[in-house]
Design a protein that fits this description.
- With about 500 residues, the chain is mostly beta strands.
- It is about 5% helix and about 65% strand.
- The strands form 5 sheets. Strands 1, 16, 17, 18, 19, 20, 21, 22, 23, 24, 25, 26 and 27 form a 13-stranded antiparallel sheet that branches. Strands 9-10-14-15-13 form a 5-stranded mixed sheet.
- Strand 18 and strand 19 form a beta hairpin.
- It starts with a strand and ends with a strand.
Amino acid sequence: MNIRNTISAIFILGYFPVVWSQTTGKIVDTNQQPVEGATIVMQLPDSTYLGATISAADGTFTLEPEPEDYQLIIQHLLYQTRQVKGQARDAGVITLESKDYNLEEVVIEGERPFVTVEQGKLNYDISAISEKHIVNNAYEAICKLPGVQDRNGKLSLVGAKDVTVILNGKASTLTQEQLIEMLKNTSASQVQTAEVMYNTPPEYHVRGAAINIVTAKADDNTIQSELSTSYSNQYFSSYSGNVNFLMTKGKSSLNVSYNPGYSHIMTVMDLASQHTYDGKVYDITQTQKINTKGWKHNIYAEYGYQINEDNELSVGYNGALSNNGKGTIDVNGNFQNSHNDKLQDSRLHNVFARYSSGFGLDFGVDYTDYTMNDKNRLESKLTDNTRQLLDYTSDQKIRKFSVYADQSHALANDWTLKYGVRYDYTDNKNAQFFNQTEGKDDVGNSSSRLYEQITNFYGGFDKEFENGLSLSLSATGEYYPSEIIINGRSIRRPV
């Protein structure tokens, strides 16, 4: 058993004008015209978050405090994101370059702002993006946010090393990949706001930067529905559908989404490499063709009940089912030719329940059950005519459970006391079974199992000032016991 105890203290001082001076600057475009509504994030050189603000109508901005060394991240829907390093109170004039699309089509008008800054969070209005851009789902809308990018299927945030995706203010037992898959099958109309946090408050129970996806709710006593379909053709045809249903009646609310989809995708890659063996350099070239097809079904349902004016309960379910997914992998090269037939099934079930009270208590539980079965038949032939015929199966089973409780108390003089705890348990089992019918070397079976427990707790104080500045003092701790078993042998992880 490997046990790691971590206790850390985080002191985030909001903008206190009596103590620190100000950092000022101006945002303009390439025509030297002021840029209004740009988001400016101030960080230390190590990416520690200090504060954020929005440029005024004349392009000017003010940030506090003014450290000796800092960096600014300037973001705007219509312009390329910039990072600027500074060492002076006057950040100077910062020029933004326009993005490649027609500006007239994406100008945000009306009383509702596209982005606001509140308690260190950048709150982006997703409806403003979906109204002005063609987006197929919630994930594509989020990728339109300034500073947010898709990198190899994962979300990244400029100025942050890593970013955690959370849903409705609470971290889920779903992985980021699973959350992204859910967002790809969610209509953009079902997302109200996206909150970007470079230094996530401790009550979210995550470290570093985070993007909080806040789902939309229907107005009182209304019913909303949406039906959409899509079709694409590259080498083969793929198609999908989406049904969304929102209802609010009395104290009850219901949100249901179902997305079935069939895809048939072929990917071709040409690879070239050089390898040195026994003092000799070998040039290796090969063409790899991957062909996959199958159905996927994604389901989301959440029911909310307003017990009274101050107490609310919600329960929900996320499901992702992929049955009888088929695929082939063909490799042709100067050293090896191979053919691999694949048959894959996967099932994801996630259930959650949340309760919020009028006396500052938030309580919730979350459970995820994931299984994947991957059957393969591999036939390969080397240049020396050596053949290998192998059947193997890969099984994965993941069980994740979490429970949290957060409490806040309003104190005198606009102070707030906050504290909470979160417990996570993970049981991750992997196994590979081989049956070699032809070949020189036998391949042995393998298995692994990971037990992991994380207890995260925090406590702190917040204060809001009349001028919009804030002060936050908090301490966090983590208790982390874990054990990994490989082929029946327990291995201690390094502290």
